Amino acid sequence: MKYISTRGGMAPQSFSDILLGGLAPDGGLAIAEAYPRFGLDALERLSTLSYADLAFQIIDHFVDDIPAADLKALIARTYTAEVYCNGRDPARAAEITPVTRLEDNLYLQELSNGPTLAFKDMAMQLLGNLFEYVLAHKGETINIVGATSGDTGSAAEYAMRGKAGVNVVMLSPYGKMSPFQRAQMFSLQDANIHNVAVKGFFDACQDMVKAVNNDAAFKAEHKIGAVNSINWGRVIAQVVYYFKGYFAVAKKVGDPVDFCVPSGNFGNVCAGHIARQLGLPIRHLVVATNENDVLDEFFKTGRYQPRGLDRTYETSSPSMDITKASNLERFVFDLIGRDGDELASLWQQVEKADGFALSEGDFKRMHDAYGFRSEKSTHADRLASIREVAQKYGIQIDPHTADGYKAAKAHRDANVPMVILETALPAKFEATMVEALGSQPQRPAHLVGLEDLPQRFDTLEADVDALKRYVAERV
Ligand SMILES: Cc1ncc(COP(=O)(O)O)c(C=O)c1O
Ligand SMILES: N[C@@H](CCOP(=O)(O)O)C(=O)O
């Protein structure tokens, strides 16, 4: 499998190159030249595999330059019960992403049992091991520049801390993460981890990361790499749990299943789209947003209009406070027939803040052929969802998963299983959980007192040149 750019300006590249390269040289995102397709017989065979074996069978199709035996060993080392347990039911830990039945045809898939209590660990742990392997084989080093609204940053830092040849510079929105998220990142004292609080929202952080990546000379000189979902390695690892969730709930292989996905940067649900392209019988992909509802607007109207500061909100599902959904680019590339020139012109309009509107045909195909649906939650909805799930099912869900619960209820069909993807644990968002339920959520014993640890971070204005100077001085 080779990789091209969504904007049409990259000669086909191998997996390891795009893994280390991050953003494509033309500013687009790397994407597989074609999607392999699993037929029903192949799906039957996959349906009984362990998480690690399933991950290998899927990911191996996308890796053209790592020997299969090495890839298999890397994956086996990543997806273990020890890495994905985190104090929750150890008997279920071997399933890696256990699925709980809430009621008939309504399920919750746990994705937050990794070291940092959010779904980002599902891909990031593998990315850490892949980076280490590829860098050692190429004899190279990498300086990761990333952006986080709270969860990617800690997942990346826990996956990369202490790894030889890897530095991490992670930008986060100053004062906008939960105290737990902040402490998780800023308490790390490893010499290869650099936290930078930027005065602005996540969108500004991500724009700065992309600007650094778009400066070819700076990128080459400082060996800049990416861990956000602009990195294809992240997305392909996330595809696996859709297969696992599907096999857990489908009565027979081939039956339709719906997934509901709390969304912000569109990486998670983009992985669902790719799973569907690979032949997994997903009927609907329901995109759940918070008050930053740019994606809900897109799926309801066909108009994609990232917001300015006057319409970007700090919400109680803060990791989804995103109005420029980076990965939407990969889906729209597929939707418009993989025309790189057209995609590049649409994203020029996004970059000028004009946005774009889909043609009538593409708007219809997005629902009919690609199965997308969407729904938005407010703070009041979120609290009501957390309370309802606690009362009806005796389960605590975090504020982001709560946005998913509301959207799943809005789009449920009694005859089709709906899987809600859990994206974080309640412990990361104590204030909202206390507001909803009146009590503190549980947290794993080793994280008690996290917020009391000494914290280390730098601050920067939302200024690309300041970031370049920072990177040049530190790595
Ligand atoms: C807890 C949580 N839920 C949902 C999301 C949204 O996921 P995505 O950006 O992949 O759409 C994020 C971050 O992105 C997150 O951290
Ligand atoms: N919510 C994310 C934002 C970045 O998303 P990514 O999947 O593109 O890394 C976060 O928690 O940082």
From TrEMBL:
Its cofactor is pyridoxal 5'-phosphate. Keywords: Amino-acid biosynthesis, Lyase, Pyridoxal phosphate, Threonine biosynthesis. InterPro entries: Ser/Thr_deHydtase_PyrdxlP-BS (IPR000634), Thr_synth_N (IPR029144), Thr_synth_N_sf (IPR037158), Thr_synthase-like (IPR004450), Threonine_Synthase (IPR051166), TrpB-like_PALP (IPR001926), TrpB-like_PALP_sf (IPR036052). Pathway: Amino-acid biosynthesis; L-threonine biosynthesis; L-threonine from L-aspartate: step 5/5. It is an enzyme of class 4 (lyase). NCBIfam families: thrC. This is Threonine synthase. It comes from Jeongeupia chitinilytica.
